[in-house]
Amino acid sequence: MANIPKYYESLNIDFKPPRGNWMDRPLNIKPGIYCYPARPEVLKKAGMNDRSDWGKYWVIEDEDWELPDDWKERFLNKMRDMLGKYRTFKIYMDICVRCGACADKCHYFLGSGDPMNMPVMRAELLRSIYRGEFTKTGKILGRLAGARKLTKDALRQLWYYMFQCSECRRCSVFCPYGIDTAEITIMGREIMNELGMNIAWIQESVTKCLFTGNHLGLQPHTYKECVDTMLMDIEDNVGISFEPSWNRKGAEILFVTPSGDVFADPGIFTLAGYLLLFEHLGLDYTWSTYASEGGDFGYFTANEVAKRMNGKIYAEAKRLGVKWILGGECGHMWRVLNQYMTTWHGPIDFLEEPVSPITGTKFENAKAHKMVHIMEFTADLIKHNKLKLDPSRNDRLKVTFHDSCNPSRGMGLFEEPRYVIKSVCNHFYEMPENTIREQTYCCGSGSGLNASENMELRLRGGFPRQNALRYVREKYGVNMLACICAIDRAALPPAAQYWNPDVGVCGVTELVANALIMEGEGPRTHNLRGFEIATWEPEP
Amino acid sequence: MGVKLSLGVSLGAVLAIVLVALVGAQVSSLQPIFGIFVPYAAFVIFILGFIYRVVDWGRSPVPYRIPTTCGQQKTLPWIKNDEIENPSSTLGVIGRMILEIFAFRSLFRHTKAEMASGNIVCGGSKWIWLGALAFHYSFLIIAIRHLRLFVEPVPAFVNGLGIVDGMLQIGVPELYITDVLLLAAVSYLLVRRLIVPKMRYISLANDYFPLFLILGIGISGVLMRYFIRVDIVSVKELAVGLASLHPTVPEGIGAIFFVHVALVSTLFAYFPFSKLMHAGGVFLSPGRNLANTNRAKMHVNPWEYPVKIHPYEDYENEFREKMKNAGIPVERE
User: Fold this and answer.
1) SS (HEC) of B50-78
2) Which of A90, A99, A408 sits opposite B57 (nearest CB)?
3) What is the pLDDT of residues A231-277, one digit of tens each?
4) Contact assessment for residue A259 and residue A215, using Cβ atoms and an 8 Å cutoff
């Protein structure tokens, strides 16, 4: 792992690009910015790419990559195929006018000043190859038309920057034509995936998930043990004990959440939140060890792989005979669920239209899809006064909300989490206008880039968000950053350590559970994290 | 290729067109080529090329619903949704597209990020929006005003538009506001590309070329109207002839007219093969023109195919004993 420069001590980012043409500039590969490559055997196990016919795996620093002899053909054939399959790809290759509206919108650009991190340039890397290899004007006029041929150097550059995009879509909000650089990155990654060029952090998760059901590779008994451990903590801190059900046939609702919530701090407190909320309601629901992952790292490799991973949720709902599915707090999980899920597997006629068993509300927006977001579900409960709440238990917290990129720009989930937070906390403060809602900044580690070897990239990318957080921390004394994404909960704490050392990170459902007055509860002197409620200061 | 070369090539190409047209205008036998053949050819290339490009895009399906949602989704009835920024119906999509196409909604959101003592300061910045709006609308109005040359009698709205456009000055010829606006806006767009380092970095020759071309069109038009007068009766005769498919080139139209026509023809012919096609593409952009009904309705992807999902049966076979020991129900003992 590369040394992380203490850039925060003397932040000196120059947004001014160098002179000259980017095509003439050699790629400056910096450790700490990129991720380790995927191992061929892991790719092979997932049935994604059999690289046994062409040597060892590639490493970005290597001068000569051992690519298959027909690498160029493979690349171009795949690209041609995708241009024919996705109008987005084709149009976005053609209509950019380079107006520069996106140029200063990317958190990686703002944190690094690397001109190739301007969304337009990221796209231009692929666009120049498109012009040079697929258009007549590009073939005739060459660089005069901004075209270049596919070379190993171009490929290397493409790889380096496609894995410096967290597919957060912030740039697309500002583009006058709605050009979505995330979509271009998705295409670019899928094309390179044809050559086995993925990263270990993503690919290990994908392969584990395909066989064990979740990214972390937790086997069924281990998954249950993780939840059981949390139940013991709940017993200590809340004073009640209960058992949720596992893989139970005939339950009304199947609950699916990212496995990050089951495993890592502070996500586990969000997990405790789910458990307490459902127990409070007496919900007829079940967990599944087979569909124990809502997240979908396949989305960061290729469409087909994403579909293979996602398919388990519906398959499990069908096997268990539930009526509908409830989904936990997660970013790209919901982007995938929202944009692709029914199209991949539908029509979903073995499930019923989701109806809240507590309030009777029909979730008409999920009519065909049969899956409801926990924020929609909880907001509805609170609106109907179905939760017994004591918001003063969160009084030590001054909360702000980080709109997670994917539910924001891929769904439009803005009001529900705010309504929930304001109902369970007495102190809520918004970060500055241009950094929230659809203009929200990424945590810096989305789209499978939350490895540790690229920590400098993550911290630089996280800088704009932390900068906005620091503003409310200094102005209002904010000490808790709530979010609705498991990657946020993994990525924001290390970035906050640099920038906002006394601000904690939590899921919204954790806040809900802290305020919930549970039946038969003991004296609630401690919150879910085991801190005394009266004097709770969030972890540094 | 550096900025200088990109600029040089683009400017050179436009100057070459001007030069060729000037030479052509001097030779009367060549005038039908520049006055009739070139405009017709350019027009046909424009129409066919435009159609070809749009059909070509249309051939690629839109497999998934992927609108960029810039406002609250339609969800629970008591939560107000943002029908324009996150449409839930065709009507909402139409509203969104109208705002996008006629008011450049997304560009209006533009912010400018700067570093100030270790902080990112991000604030609204409307110049690019204003410049783009001024440019496109003056271009549109000028194009409509030109109808008075092609049709007889001149429709009332064309005359009316000309009167409004020229109301700043009484006298002959009145100064059109849009002429000034167009030249100012194009100059702004060009200068911005040259003096803002980020813009210079991302600009290509095919960004400079259309700007020079349009600048050339504007300048030649302004010269023709205010300074080097041409015989407007002859111009109209030629234009009406072109429009009614009975073209003739009258004697004595000034050379500047042929320059103007050559540049406009180049723009037409260049259009379908360039970034100028954003004019067609913006209507087809799936990031903006889809309703966010992803979960409410079933959407079909024409090329969707079944994939291999690791089946539950295999999963249970692998973990059965562990599941049983942990008290997790299994299908087969």
Assistant:
1) HHHHHHHHHHCCCCCCCCCCCCCCCCCCC
2) A90
3) 999 999 999 999 999 999 999 999 999 999 998 889 999 999 999 99
4) yes
Q: Which residue of chain B is at minimal alpha-carbon distance from A85?
A: B60
The arrangement of strands across the sheet holding A285-287 comes to: A285-287, A253-256, A324-327, A371-373
Write the residue in B75, B299, B318 that is nearest to A376 by C-beta.
B75
- Residues B51, B57, B62, B66: is their CA dihedral positive or negative? negative
Q: What are phi and psi of A312, to 5 degrees?
A: -65, -25
Strand partners of residue A506: A482
Cα atoms found within 13 Å of the Cα of residue B193, Cβ hemisphere only: 24
pLDDT tens string B65-102 = 999 999 999 999 999 999 999 999 999 999 999 999 99
Instruction: Please tell me if residue A5 touches chain B, with a CB cutoff of 8 Å.
Output: no
- pLDDT tens sequence across B40-61: 999 999 999 999 999 999 999 9
Chain A residues with CB under 8 Å of B297 CB are 367-368
Q: Please report residues of A whose CB lies closer than 8 A to that of B192.
A: 100
- Of A173, A343, A365, nearest to B74 by CB-CB distance is A365
Distances (CA, A) of B14 to A310, B26, B203: 54, 19, 18
Searching chain A, which residue's CA lies closest to the CA of residue B311?
A: A312
pTM assigned to the model: 0.94
What pLDDT score does A5 carry?
55
Angstrom distance (rounded) from CA A56 to CA A64: 12
Q: Is B223 left (phi over 0), alpha (psi -120 to 50) or beta?
A: alpha
DSSP 3-state of A480: strand
- At residue A4, the pLDDT reads 54
What CA–CA distances, in Å, run from A277 to A282, A317, B249? 9, 21, 83
Q: What is the pLDDT of residue A2?
A: 46
Task: Tell me the chain A residues in contact with residue B120 when contact means C-beta distances shorter than 8 Å.
Answer: 110, 463-464, 467
Distance in angstroms (rounded) separating the CA atoms of residues A442 and A402: 9
Q: Find chain B residues with C-beta within 8 A of A347's C-beta.
A: 298
Distances (CA, A) of A348 to A96, A324, B296, B298: 38, 10, 12, 9
- b/e per residue A112-149 (b: at least 16 CB within 10 A): bbbbbbbbbbbbbbbbbbbbbbbbebbeebebbbbbbe
Q: How far is A206 from chain B (nearest CA, A)?
A: 12
Residues of A in contact with B126 (CB under 8 A): none
Residue B51 C-alpha, separation from nearest chain A C-alpha, in angstroms: 14
Name the residue of chain A whose CA is nearest to B75's CA.
A365
pLDDT confidence band for A1 (50 / 70 / 90): very low
- The Cα A393–Cα A535 span in angstroms is 11
The CA distance from A422 to A401, in Å, is: 10
A95 and B78 within 8 Å at the Cβ level: the answer is no
What is the residue whose two structure tokens read 């992380």? A4
Question: Do the beta carbons of residue A213 and residue A507 sit within 8 Å?
Answer: no
String of DSSP letters for A372-437: EEHHHHHHHHHHTT-S-B-GGGGTT--EEEE--HHHHHTT---HHHHHHHHHH-S-B-PPPGGGSG
